[in-house]
Amino acid sequence: MSKAFVRDEAPEDDDEPFEASPLPDGARNYMTPAGHARMKAELLQLLDVERPEVVRVVSWAASNGDRSENGDYLYGKKRLREIDRRIRFLTKRLDAVEVVDRAGADAPEQVFFGATVTFLRNGEGEETVTIVGVDEVDPLRGRVSWISPVARALMKTREGDTVMLHTPGGVDELVVLELRYDVLE
């Protein structure tokens, strides 16, 4: 196959990695202090450690001569593009971030961003979710985005309140059992 028909790199304007969650138009990028610290640490790791190491390898590989069949050079350039794309994404997200920290303060009696909510779904099983930013979602740890349907249904409720959650499988009844604001890790 001709090289003319093969595209081996991502477009340069593609700043968003495939797993990125889009924010609604005009929405702020809310984030917990722990999520902000993790994202900032990842950016610094990429800038201070990974990128310089890959640049060093690419430079060394380029000095070896023929680049067309030089695996270290080709892989290094590809990895450098991935790192640069992630750096652009993280920088853009961190520039628009609004850190929200409700832990330790006089926590409201209503569900807002940062709340950990235990609720009863359809009178059967208890579930616990923590409402976090779109870049902090982790379903296995019960962390849901503030723009997710369950978080939106729970917003502004209080302990004892009942809300309806419209799902593709029908309507679920959620009864808020407990509300707290914890320091997230």
How do you describe this structure in short?
By secondary structure, the chain is an alpha/beta fold.
Could you walk me through the main structural features you see in this protein, from its secondary elements to its overall organization?
The chain is an alpha/beta fold and 185 residues long. Helices cover 33% and strands 22% of the residues. It is built from three helices and seven strands; from the N terminus they run βααββββαββ. The strands form two sheets. The protein has a five-stranded mixed β-sheet with strand order 5-4-3-7-6. The chain has a two-stranded parallel ribbon with strand order 1-2. β6 (162-167) and β7 form a beta hairpin. α1 (33-62) packs antiparallel against α2. The termini are far apart. Residues 1-18 have low confidence and may be disordered.
Shape: elongated
How are the strands ordered across the major sheet? Answer: 5-4-3-7-6
Radius of gyration: 22 Å
Averaged pLDDT? 84
Profile the largest sheet. Answer: 5 strands, mixed
Number of helices: 3
Proportion of residues in β-strands: 15-25%
Count every beta strand, where a strand is a DSSP E run of 2 or more residues: 7
- Point out poorly predicted stretches: 1-18
Helical coverage, percent range: 25-40%
Give, in order, the helices and strands.
EHHEEEEHEE
Cα distance spanning the termini: 50 Å
Structural class: alpha/beta
